[in-house]
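Structure (tokenized):
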């Protein structure tokens, strides 16, 4: 395995002749990330063993063109300038970012981070009102959108081509359609184990001090089980939280003990979390309010000085998909057919009858896609009041993807829209810390195998991740792990309420950013005051404002009149 620099940024012109075919200029290449199969590719391309990754990518491009993306195993972004055309690519995992901006009729700036894009752009970047609305709704911004107007985030697994004709997005390499394996379920479990053993082996091949994150869930437990059989010196790392409702450490400890792994449980104080939050808002590319990000940053910082490779179980869901809960299926298939006025009336009636209040999610939505949103940010009506302007979310990847599917395509739709939600928590923390983290489930062979399995091997109405659970049960007894999962849930309410809601008061009630007119200060403060007074239903909305305010106060030079783009 070979690792390239973490980032790159450049501004180049396109459309200019690069001499005759007999004297063609070699393509220019930029590469950031790591490749697991670099040595095999060098042998295939007859390159020296120590040829740098940029040279490897250049040779691979000259041999395979767009199809080179199917040959590269790892997590990376790349750019290639060839014969007057610029090609940009981001691997399907999405764990590395890549941004593009047109800065002239034939000139483009591109970078792996927005700060880098600012450095190579001749004109200031202005915040996008559409991106602001998207952040307030989802607490994140998904490609192809970005915080700045006129900036495009390259979508994972797709090529973007920039030429004298403009920007062409959505190019994909030619690949054969995935074939459904002709195997029974037990054979599928065997094959998954073989794929994971190979992927984990590649990830840990040169590691001297390996570790793996163990949350107590199926994905991370399975990864530790497979990796632990290959490396007896593997350390399992778990982040513990105060309170049984959040703490997965006891389950993780039982799993690690059964596997014979050294186990570290990291517990951070409130002061640690606040300090991590302050570092994050100074260094994040754009506002992003995943509540678990401060704890993730602290765990990455801890591991960075102790381990040379850390495995993470993320990426399974994009391959195996999601089975939507029953209330989502009912809301999308049936409740969405009711007029909005009828749904509002039913919501009010259900809320007045305590035994039936739990059924309000079936009808309490402006759009049925809302039932699938990870964190409940502001509604479109609330965004309009906050921003003093019409708010449309039709431009977001989430809503566009939702509309692609027929009403009863529940598994396909839910899997696709959940894949639209970015994983910026990991991306940003890896970029900030430089932790060498590896994602075996993002391995192309593992991903393609899981994606091609019959749906009933992946999910049933009563059991999610069926094939992964069956494999884990071969290594760890079910009673140790087959329990209600908390997820990597940060105790957000406790964090925001600490020290008399200090963060809320500092960044929402008294934030300097409110003087710049990005949003209506009176509406922003009203949410904070209502939350501080005890309305915990506003927790995610206020958290979105805390993160936004802290990020803007840390980037005061970026707060300029907002564009309508």
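Design, position by position:
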């Amino acid at each position: 395995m070979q690792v390239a620099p973490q980032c790159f940024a450049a501004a180049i012109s396109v459309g200019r002749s690069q001499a005759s075919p007999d004297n063609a200029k070699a393509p220019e290449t930029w590469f950031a990330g790591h490749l697991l199969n670099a040595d095999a590719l060098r042998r295939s391309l007859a390159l020296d063993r120590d040829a740098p990754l940029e040279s490897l990518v250049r040779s691979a491009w000259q041999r395979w063109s767009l199809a080179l993306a199917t040959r590269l195993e790892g997590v990376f972004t790349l750019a290639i300038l060839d014969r007057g055309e610029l090609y940009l690519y981001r691997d399907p995992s999405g764990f590395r970012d890549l941004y593009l901006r047109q800065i002239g009729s034939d000139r483009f700036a591109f970078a792996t981070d927005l700060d880098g894009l600012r450095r190579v752009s001749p004109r200031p970047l202005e915040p996008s009102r559409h991106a602001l609305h998207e952040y307030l709704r989802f607490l994140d911004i998904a490609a192809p959108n970005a915080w700045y107007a006129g900036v495009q985030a390259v979508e994972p697994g797709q090529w973007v081509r920039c030429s004298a004709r403009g920007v062409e997005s959505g190019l994909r390499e030619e690949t054969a359609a995935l074939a459904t394996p002709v195997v029974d379920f037990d054979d599928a479990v065997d094959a998954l184990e073989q794929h994971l053993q190979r992927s984990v082996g590649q990830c840990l091949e040169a590691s001297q001090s390996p570790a793996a994150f163990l949350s107590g869930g199926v994905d991370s437990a399975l990864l530790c089980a497979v990796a632990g059989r290959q490396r007896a010196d593997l350390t399992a790392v778990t982040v513990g939280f105060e309170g049984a409702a959040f703490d997965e450490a006891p389950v993780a400890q039982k799993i690690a003990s059964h596997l014979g792994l050294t186990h570290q449980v990291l517990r951070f104080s409130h002061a640690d979390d606040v300090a991590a939050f302050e570092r994050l808002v100074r260094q994040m590319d754009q506002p992003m309010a995943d509540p678990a990000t401060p704890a993730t940053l602290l765990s990455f910082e801890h591991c960075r000085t102790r381990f040379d490779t850390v495995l993470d179980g993320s990426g399974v869901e994009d391959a195996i998909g999601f089975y939507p809960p029953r209330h989502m299926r009912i809301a999308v298939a049936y409740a969405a057919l009711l007029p909005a006025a009828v749904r509002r009336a039913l919501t009010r009636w259900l809320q007045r009858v305590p035994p039936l209040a739990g059924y309000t999610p079936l009808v309490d939505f402006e759009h049925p896609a809302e039932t699938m949103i990870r964190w409940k940010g502001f509604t479109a009506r609330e965004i309009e009041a906050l921003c003093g302007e019409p708010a449309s979310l039709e431009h977001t990847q989430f809503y566009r993807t939702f509309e692609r599917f027929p009403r009863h395509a529940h598994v396909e739709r839910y899997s696709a829209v959940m894949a639209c939600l970015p994983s910026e928590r990991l991306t940003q923390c890896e970029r900030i810390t430089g932790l060498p983290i590896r994602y075996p489930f993002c391995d192309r062979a593992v991903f393609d195998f899981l994606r091609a399995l019959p749906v009933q091997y992946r999910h049933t109405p009563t059991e999610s991740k069926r094939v992964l659970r069956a494999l884990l049960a071969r290594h760890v007894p079910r009673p140790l792990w087959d329990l209600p999962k908390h997820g990597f849930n940060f105790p957000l309410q406790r964090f925001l309420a600490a020290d008399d809601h200090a963060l809320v008061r500092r960044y929402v009630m008294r934030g300097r950013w409110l003087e710049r007119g990005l949003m209506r200060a009176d509406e922003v403060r009203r949410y904070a005051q209502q939350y501080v007074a005890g309305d915990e239903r506003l927790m995610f909305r206020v958290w979105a404002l805390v993160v936004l305010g802290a990020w803007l106060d840390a980037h005061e030079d970026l707060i300029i009149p907002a564009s309508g783009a």
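Reviewer-requested clarification: The chain has a mean pLDDT of 90. The radius of gyration is 24 Å.
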